[in-house]
Amino acid sequence: MRSRNTLLWIGFTVLAVLTPVQAQGEAAGGKITQPPAGSKESTKPPRGRGSATLDRIDGKWWTTGNGFGDSEVVFTQNGTQIKGVIRYADGRTGTIIGRLVGKRLQHTWSNSSGIAGSGWLELSWANFLGGPWRNPQIKDGSWTMSRVEGKWCFNGQRNRVRTVTHDATGRLTIFSEDGNESGRLEGPWIYLDSARGNIKGDRHYKGNRIDWADGTFWTWCGR
What is the spatial distance between Cα 156 and Cα 221, in angstroms, rounded to a whole number? Predict the structure, then answer.
């Protein structure tokens, strides 16, 4: 009888020792103790929270807007710092300087006519910038920029790429597997030259597709 009681006592003792150890290893939704402040573990960044990818707006954009005039803007980007050269269709030139905060470019600009202003441009979609500007003379100016220069896929086919560029007057040059084509930008509208005349294209509001009047379309393939 004594030996049986001794065995039971030993068994209860072993269970009492093992139970806390086992509980620590179970994923039962219990509270996790945080490491002490200042320790190595406490300074590690949380997993799965990488830094946001910085938007790239460097390159050439086509500009239209209320009272601003047709032009091209070529941005140079160094991190969040942005510089740009403005070339107007009427021959004027200008500069723009700003800082990209999130998707918003806070900027100031000036041109060779002695006109200057400040405002912001929002990167609403990958190929569209827009926002207000103002100066002592104009309180409600606005402008938009579209990224037309780059690669476009004919009917969405990646083996039929059109590489497009333009100048400050909106003149388009298109390089494709079939040879070179031409066209033009007129404000927010785009046209292709063809043997049958001008073919008008309507740009999707997100700037990633152009639907042509002949029933074909282009989709954005990148730069």
Answer: 9
